[in-house]
């Protein structure tokens, strides 16, 4: 995988991909490069206006791109159900669980979940479960979930998944990113137990220049923090194009292993895709099982085809 770039992405013609949060940053680059290689890409975006701009922009950068826009609000399980029910395809080669929020002031989703846990984990858990029949019906399908090196700040607290006892925005973010990895671990384990031909993998961008970092300070009115984060992005971060490479690798490269975690090669920060370190609690079968059971209960989405 040394020196792997977008030029190494295999031909994607005939494949169908869904990319959440495809209107900007890592999701936009991921969707554009998949389309450039011939995939039909569904841009799953919260804002139809911003999604429409992204669709048109991809069309201008990749004239023969086959992309379509569909609204998806991961903070609303009803919206997730509507998205999955309206998707007019009986197969799905690739689901990229990319969208996310970072270090927001305390808030809740439509369904009453703490926002970061609800959007980053529960929304994607529900989406994957609802699209599971199409994934299982597609030989060689993949589910790639985007986590973060920040997951190492904290394990999930199974007794307080919604941070009701105490809320610290960065800890809540870390827990949601640990949840992404535990979800990938448990999904891979259940797929293997059923002998299904689906690869569940995870990736992270290292430190990439996107609008994600500044959203929380902007919402909280912390202009100084917002300025510092934007300055740090300009000086220290790699581009969104480079940050998307680990996701694209996990999504397309031959031989990607189930439950693998791909990130930048240099100090989990920047560089070409490489196997990434992950905290030991993210490969706990017991924690994965307990989080899975809680996620099914909270979302009402059950993975009946992968019962263990």
Describe what this molecule looks like in 3D.
The chain is α/β, with parallel strands linked by helices and 308 residues long. The chain has one domain: Rossmann fold, CATH 3.40.50.720. It has helices at residues 25-36, 48-61, 77-86, 115-136, 169-194, 212-220, 223-236, 240-243, 245-252, 285-299, and strands at residues 16-20, 40-45, 66-71, 94-97, 141-146, 198-203, 261-266, 270-275. The chain is globular, with a radius of gyration of 18 Å.
Gross morphology: globular
What is the correct CATH architecture?
A: 3-Layer(aba) Sandwich
- CATH homologous superfamily? NAD(P)-binding Rossmann-like Domain
First and last CA, distance: 34 Å
Separate helix tally: 10
User: Roughly what percent helix?
Assistant: 40-55%
* Rg, alpha carbons: 18 Å
State which percent range the strand residues make up: 5-15%
Biggest beta-sheet profile: 8 strands, mixed
Low-confidence stretches: 213-222, 224-233
CATH class: Alpha Beta
Secondary-structure class: alpha/beta
- Average pLDDT taken over every residue: 91
Q: What is the H/E string?
A: EHEHEHEHEHEHHHHEEH
Strand order of the largest sheet: 3-2-1-4-5-6-7-8
Number of self-contained structural domains: 1
Keywords:
single chain; 308 residues; alpha/beta; Rossmann fold; 44% helix; globular
